[in-house]
Amino acid sequence: MPASARRIIDLSHTMREGLVTYPGLPVPVFTSHLTRADSRAVYAPGTEFAMDIITMIGNTGTYLDSPFHRYPEGSDLAGLELDTLVALPAQVVHLRASTNRAVDVDSFVGREIAGCAVLIDTGWDRHFGEPEYATGAPFLTEAAARYLAAQGAVLVGIDSLNIDDTPSGGPRPAHSILLAAGIHVVEHLTGLDQLPEQGARFTAVPPKVEGFGTFPVRAYAHLD
């Protein structure tokens, strides 16, 4: 299909130095390994490069949780199958009008979940990068996580601080249930309001890193 026949929608936040994704976690730090000015002494006249270093936690920007994030025996980033990350049929649940923080089973009943990326559009992404993002964020209930796992979801994404209710502390039932079932979790999505409930295909691929459980992704959807 020619590129002109597709609409591609970026669903990722822009990463920048000092970005606060989750309060309390380290922010990314950018440093230079080789500046353009210094590279002029290394390469032929008129040729220059920049080589930079980024120091960051895997939980930065829009990122994917693999099972290894929660379980030591689970698949790490290098073990993920591309067919569980690329061009997944998307079921988009639009909840921006809801006043309930808890996203429960009733939001998903009647939808074709098997083999899909289930994307939860709460509108909380409007607070990303601001103090408001950290408090009162929407989350997925334990019952809903069990339902999505039982229905055969491949990936579950949300445009919120966390897929679990973080202020409650203690267990993280949504992470625990979904990742135990081999269902990937993508957090801190944005722009889900641009997608229809059905008909989009969702992609979120992290780099192939052994022994690592989370990493930023360039998440996007395409509409044919």
Structural features, described:
The protein is mainly beta. The chain has one domain: Glucose Oxidase, domain 1 (3-Layer(bba) Sandwich), CATH 3.50.30. Helix content is 9%, strand content 24%. It contains three helices and 13 strands; from the N terminus they run E-E-H-E-E-E-E-E-E-H-E-H-E-E-E-E. The protein has a nine-stranded mixed beta sheet with strand order 1-13-11-5-7-9-10-4-12, covered by helices on one side. The protein has a two-stranded antiparallel sheet with strand order 2-3. A two-stranded parallel ribbon has the order 6-8. Helix 2 (142-150) runs parallel beside helix 3. The radius of gyration is 19 Å and the shape is globular. The termini are close together. The model has no long low-confidence stretch (mean pLDDT 96).
Short description:
Helices cover 9% and strands 24% of the residues.
Strands, count: 13
Stretches where pLDDT is under 50 for at least 5 consecutive residues are none
Query: What class, by secondary structure content?
Result: mainly beta
Share of residues in strands: 15-25%
In the residues, how many domains can be counted?
1
